[in-house]
Amino acid sequence: MKLPTKLIHSGIRPDPVTGAIVPPLYQTATYVLEEVGRDKGFDYTRSSNPTRQVLEENLAAVEGGEGEAFGVCYASGMSAVDGCMKLLSAGDHVVCSDDVYGGVSRHFDRVLARYGLEFSYVDTSEPQKVAAAVRPNTKMIWVETPTNPLLKITDLGAVAKIAKDAGVYFGVDSTFATPVFLRPLEWGADLVMHSTTKYLSGHNQLIGGAVVTNRREIYDELKFIQKTIGAVPGPFDCWLALLGMKTLHLRMRCHAESAQKIAEFLHRHAKVARVIYPGLPSHPQHETARRQMSGFSGMISFELKGGIEAGAALMNGVKLCGLAESLGAVESMITHPATMTHADVPAAERRARGLSDGLVRLSVGIEDVDDILADLAAALDRVK
Predict the structure, then answer these.
(1) 374 vs 337, which has greater pLDDT?
(2) Is 2 among the residues known to form the active site?
(3) Is position 198 annotated as part of the catalytic site?
(4) Which of 225-239, 304-318, 339-353 has maximum average pLDDT?
(5) Active-site pick, 198, 251, 353, 361
(6) Which position among 26, 31, 74, 101 bears the catalytic label?
(7) How far apart are CA 151 and CA 172, in angstroms?
(8) Which of 44, 46, 106, 223 is the catalytic position?
(9) Domain spanning 249-381: which CATH class is it, in words?
(10) What pTM does this model have?
(11) What are the structural domain ranges in the chain?
(12) Residue from 173, 190, 237, 375 carrying the catalytic annotation
């Protein structure tokens, strides 16, 4: 099946009781056993739930391509990241992209480091730096591609070879790309993580996360961790996410087409110092993105010539674009990473990564692109 068909049909069957075309919402905590030791596949929703199972099967089919894959859903993107890290033990080392979501580096450095995990941050868009960072106790390479918020692109095939040669897990946060534009398992990844809060559900209506793997032994361990820790999404959130998945391919096409036009507009604008978008030839990894991805998604980062003051004036001046954290929804949203998504990253570390205080991150929605452009143009006109 082609991807749009998989998004609509994979894991989804008419309800055997009523024939309902939409999977039922099983909003229940527990299940009545037929007799001692005999159930119908479900006993307690922390362990499994029919609605969550449909979402997990759908995600696995979509992300797994033509091969076998397995999905595990979580209460948030961060709990999905945490589930992956619980594959490791005290004393293990992780090589991580230097430009990651601030909540990830906060979790690694201020929580997991207390339990004996070690982390090194490198520019994973340069595979040689990844290889140089691998140690004898390295057990995982963790990358975002595109990264948040500098939109760096990692050559997944090259890093997968490094991981395979070292005998370590290779995990990819593919939230920005989605399986519409990139399927990391096809490039050698062992784990693919998504914040389902973002593009997959797409309507700013839930918090959730998911991990997909094509290795049965990893899946079994992740399911054990999911059941034991209990950081699971509620059935209603899973049901909503399934509705979002059905239109993912249409929304992503609109996000990407509009983002390309907006990035080109910003690139030409006299008040803009730099624009970061993988679809622009000026992007340092543009050729890698073209080879690896089938589209460039809807995220743009840029900086105005007036620095942080100009950036603040722009963000306070937009009317259509909401000044809000998060991304990947039908509504356009604009964010100041230094004071919002990455506020917990020390200022010196942010600057070392190339994340300036004046950087603006734009999540392009699916409004008419001319209206988004008009909103940005009017706000830029007010910037001195």
Answers:
(1) 374
(2) no
(3) yes
(4) 225-239
(5) 198
(6) 101
(7) 14
(8) 46
(9) alpha beta
(10) 0.95
(11) 3-246, 249-381
(12) 173
